[in-house]
Design a protein that fits this description.
Blueprint: H1 2-10, H2 18-30, H3 32-39, E1 45-46, E2 49-53, H4 63-80, E3 87-92, H5 98-111, E4 115-119, H6 125-134, E5 139-143, E6 152-158, H7 169-178, E7 194-197, H8 199-213, E8 225-228, H9 238-244, E9 250-252, H10 278-287, E10 291-295, E11 302-307, E12 313-315, H11 318-336, E13 342-347, H12 353-361, E14 364-368, H13 372-381, E15 386-392, E16 396-399, H14 408-424, H15 429-440, E17 442-451, H16 454-470, E18 475-476, E19 479-486, E20 491-493, E21 500-502, E22 511-515, E23 520-525, E24 531-540, H17 548-565
Parallel strand pairs: 3-4, 3-5, 4-7, 8-9, 8-10, 13-14, 13-15
Antiparallel strand pairs: 1-2, 2-6, 5-6, 10-11, 11-12, 15-16, 17-24, 18-19, 19-20, 19-22, 20-21, 22-23, 23-24
Helix pairs in contact: 4-5, 4-7, 6-8, 8-9, 8-14, 11-12, 11-14, 11-15
C-alpha cells in the first residue's frame, strides 16, 4: 500500500490539472479500494497495445499516461532515426474522448519536433495501418479499445512497416517510457507540425481495398447483404467499398450506423457475440438477405452470419470464416499458378485445419503467437515470400499485405465475393464450408472466457495458469494427452515419455495440450482484457455431406463433456 500511496501522491503536484489533483485527494480520503486499483501498477503494452479503463491514475487511460507513452516513443524515434525527418500518423475511433486524446498525442509529438498527420475525424484501424506506409511515416498510433466495453480506451503503436510493434521495439520503447517522469511530458504543441488528413488517404485506402478484395464474382446484383457497423468506424469505409465493388443490394442497419461510444443498442460491440448482431439478423429475415456482416468499433474484426442448410441465419465463428476465406484465396492463386513462394498464416490457438489445407495446396502455413502483429512481422521477416492471407480465431483476417493488421474492411468484401460466387454456382457460403470439412475433416472449436477484474483478478488468473502447469491435464475427453506445449519455457513435452523439443517462437504465457486423437485445449490470459481464455478443438472424419449435422452434434457433445470434466462450464 505504501507504493500505491506514493504513486497517488505524485499526482498531487502542480504539474497535474487542478481537477485531477482534487479527484486523487478524494480517492485517498474516501475510496481506498478504488485508489488501489487506479495506482497499483502502470498501464502496460499487451498483445494489442495499451488498453484500459479511462480515468485518473497510473492504471488508467488519460492524457498523462498517453502523454508519457508518446513522450517515450518520441525519444525513441529520435534515437533510432537520428538526422532523419520524423513523421507519424494518428487515427482514432468512436470511443469517448478518443478525439481529444488523439489531439493530445499529436500535441506531444509536435512539441518534440515530429511532423504529425492527424485524421480529421474517426477512421478504421486498417486505414491507419495502410496510412503509415502510404504517407511514409516512421510510426502510427490509433486510439481504440477495439470491442471492449464503453469505459475502455486504448493506444496501439504501429511501426514503419504498418504492423504493430513487436520485439525488440516494444521493450525498447517501454524502457524509454519507464525512464520518464510525468513532468517530462511536453504538452506544448507546435501547430505548424500538425497536418489534418482525410479524403486523399481515404481514396487511396478504399481503392486498395477494392483492388485486393475483388475477384470478379458473379451474381452481385442478386446477393443481398445486411451490414452493421455497431456504432463504430467501419461506416466510413465499408459501404463505399461494397458499392465500388458492384454490390448494390446492401442494407445498412440504421439504428447502429451512427458512431457512438456508448454503443446503446448492444450489450457488447463485439461481432463475436450473437447478441451484437440481433438487429442485423432481424433485418436479414425481413428482406431475405444472403449474408449479415457486423464489424467491431475500430473495424478490424468482423462477424458473419449466413444461411445454413435449413435456410436459417447462423453466425459463423472466426475459424470457419478464416478457413473459407483462405481456401478461396488459394483457389484464385492456384488458377494463376503457384510459384513456390506462397504462404498462409494462422496462430497457435486457431484451427489446425489451416495447416491441413496448406498441405493440400502445397503451400507453407506459418503459425505465430496470438495477435496480428506476429502475422505482420512474417511479411517483414520473409520479403522473398508471397503472403496470400491469414487470420486468427478471434474474428480477424488479413487479405494480402497492403494492410499489416487484421482488416474487416477488405475481409467484408472478400466474404461477399465468396458468397456471391457460391450463389452463382448454385451453392452457398455454408455449403462451401461443409465442402472444406469433407476435404479436411470436420473440426469443431469452442472458446471459454472467464473474466477476473482488478488486482485480485489478475492474481487469480495467474494462479489458474500455475495450476494447469503444475497439475497438467492427463486426458481430453478420454483421449490421452501426448503433448504439452509451454510457450513460457519454449518447450514441447511428451508427458508420457518425458521427451522434450524446443518451440521456435517468442515466449508467451500459453499452455496447449494435445491428445492422441487430435483434440486440443489451450489456456491463455488475454493481453488486452481481464480474462483468461480456454480454446478447445476436436475433429472427426466427415465421409459424406448428409452426415454433417450428425457428426457436428457428436463433436459438440464431446467438447461439452471435456469442458465439464475441467470444471470450466
Amino acid at each position: 500500500m505504501d507504493v500505491i500511496l506514493s504513486n497517488a501522491k505524485a499526482w498531487l503536484s502542480p504539474f497535474f490539472d487542478p481537477s485531477v489533483r482534487e479527484e486523487v485527494k478524494s480517492l485517498m480520503e474516501n475510496e481506498p479500494e478504488e485508489l488501489k486499483d487506479r495506482f497499483y501498477k502502470d498501464m502496460e503494452f499487451g498483445t494489442g497495445g495499451m488498453r484500459g479503463i479511462m480515468g485518473t491514475g497510473t492504471n488508467r487511460i488519460n492524457k498523462y499516461t498517453l502523454g508519457k507513452s508518446t513522450q517515450g516513443l518520441s525519444n525513441y524515434l529520435k534515437k533510432v532515426y537520428s538526422n532523419q525527418e520524423l513523421k507519424v500518423v494518428i487515427a482514432y475511433d468512436c470511443r469517448h474522448d478518443s478525439d481529444t486524446l488523439a489531439k493530445t498525442v499529436a500535441d506531444v509529438f509536435s512539441a518534440n519536433g515530429i511532423k504529425v498527420f492527424l485524421f480529421s475525424a474517426l477512421r478504421t484501424t486498417p486505414e491507419l495501418s495502410f496510412a503509415v506506409r502510404h504517407l511514409n511515416c516512421k510510426a502510427g498510433i490509433v486510439l481504440t479499445a477495439s470491442h471492449n466495453p464503453p469505459e475502455y480506451n486504448g493506444y496501439k503503436v504501429y511501426w514503419t512497416d504498418g504492423g504493430q510493434i513487436v520485439p525488440p521495439q516494444d521493450q525498447e520503447i517501454i524502457t524509454e517510457i519507464d525512464k520518464l517522469s510525468f513532468e517530462e511530458i511536453r504538452f506544448d504543441a507546435n501547430p505548424e507540425l500538425i497536418n489534418y488528413i482525410d479524403v486523399d488517404v481515404d481514396e487511396a485506402f478504399i481503392s486498395a481495398s477494392v483492388e485486393n478484395g475483388s475477384f470478379g464474382s458473379k451474381e452481385k446484383d442478386n446477393f443481398k447483404i445486411v451490414f452493421t457497423s455497431l456504432h463504430g468506424t467501419s461506416i466510413t469505409a465499408i459501404p463505399e467499398v461494397l458499392k465500388r465493388a458492384g454490390y448494390n443490394q446492401v442494407t445498412i442497419v440504421e439504428e447502429q450506423a451512427v458512431p457512438d461510444g456508448n454503443f446503446p443498442t448492444v450489450i457488447s460491440p463485439n461481432p463475436e457475440e450473437p447478441e451484437a448482431l440481433t438487429l442485423a439478423l432481424k433485418k436479414a429475415e425481413e428482406i431475405g438477405a444472403d449474408m449479415v456482416i457486423g464489424t467491431d468499433p475500430d473495424s478490424d474484426r468482423l462477424g458473419i452470419a449466413v444461411r445454413n442448410l435449413e435456410g436459417e441465419m447462423e453466425l459463423l465463428n472466426g475459424n470457419q470464416t478464416m478457413l473459407l476465406m483462405t481456401k478461396f484465396l488459394l483457389e484464385k492463386r492456384k488458377d494463376k499458378g503457384f510459384n513456390g513462394t506462397e504462404y498462409i498464416a494462422t496462430t497457435i490457438v486457431s484451427t489446425p485445419m489451416m495447416e491441413k489445407m496448406a498441405q493440400d495446396y502445397g503451400v507453407e502455413c506459418k503459425t505465430s503467437l496470438t495477435g496480428f502483429k506476429w502475422i505482420a512481422k512474417m511479411i517483414k521477416d520473409f520479403p522473398q515470400q508471397s503472403f496470400i492471407g491469414g487470420g486468427e480465431e478471434s474474428f480477424g483476417y488479413m487479405v494480402g499485405d497492403f494492410v499489416r493488421d487484421k482488416d474487416a474492411v477488405t475481409s467484408t468484401l472478400l466474404a461477399c465475393e465468396i458468397g456471391a460466387a457460391a450463389k452463382a454456382e448454385g451453392s452457398s457460403f455454408y455449403k462451401k464450408l461443409i465442402d472444406c470439412y469433407l476435404d479436411y475433416g470436420l473440426y469443431k472449436e469452442k472458446l471459454i472466457s472467464i473474466t477476473k477484474k482488478g488486482m485480485q483478478g489478475a492474481e487469480e488468473i495467474n494462479q489458474m495458469m500455475i495450476s494447469f502447469k503444475e497439475n497438467p491435464v492427463k486426458n481430453l475427453g478420454g483421449s490421452k494427452v501426448i503433448k504439452l506445449d509451454d510457450y513460457n519455457t519454449s518447450t514441447s513435452t511428451n508427458p508420457n515419455t518425458g521427451e522434450e523439443t524446443p518451440i521456435d517462437l517468442p515466449k508467451s504465457n500459453v499452455l496447449i495440450y494435445t491428445a492422441a486423437n487430435g483434440t486440443r485445449m489451450a489456456a491463455r490470459p488475454s493481453g488486452t482484457e481481464p480474462k483468461i481464455k480456454f480454446y478447445f478443438s476436436t475433429n472427426a472424419e466427415l465421409k459424406n455431406f448428409d452426415d454433417f449435422k450428425k457428426v457436428e452434434k457428436q463433436l459438440e457433445k464431446h467438447l461439452a463433456d471435456i469442458i465439464s470434466d475441467l470444471k470450466l462450464d
